[in-house]
Amino acid sequence: MEKVIYDEKNGLWYELQGDYYIPCLKLPEEEQQPIGIWGQRHLRHIKQNRKVLYLNLLISGKLNGYLADIDKQAEEMYSQQVKQMAEREGVTEQLKANNQMEWVGRMNNIRSRVTEIINKELINT
């Protein structure tokens, strides 16, 4: 028996595995882009809660680009929201110079709230 055969009817190559011919299938190549923390969180969410979306993106070769885009959107949203909340609540460089501990506490509070907003609106949807 031949190790590899080509079926003209459906245009697929088959490889002999034991007594059976199995189709030689490969996922499409996709450009690898770096994925940050937001993209990794979204990946975990879709793997656990939206399996069909995850598998469709994986099979089509678009998963990495999709996650990189989510990561970029979340990063921009995070920095913009932190800046706006800090301005709205009067957390300034002057406060940082005068009372560092209060500034750190208030900034941590703002960052925590913004993280919750992004998780709710973008990551876990």
Q: How do the helices and strands line up, and which of them pair or pack?
A:
Blueprint (H helix, E strand, L loop, with lengths): L3 E4 L4 E6 L2 E4 L13 H13 L1 H10 L2 H26 L4 H6 L1 H24 L2
Helix pairs in contact: 1-2, 1-3, 3-5
Write structural notes for this entry.
The chain is mainly alpha-helical and 125 residues long. The chain folds into two domains: 30 residues, no CATH class; 89 residues, no CATH class. It contains five helices and three strands. Strands 1-2-3 form a three-stranded antiparallel β-sheet, with no helix packed on it. Helix 1 crosses helix 2 and helix 3 packs antiparallel against helix 5. The longest helix has 26 residues. 10% of the residues are buried.
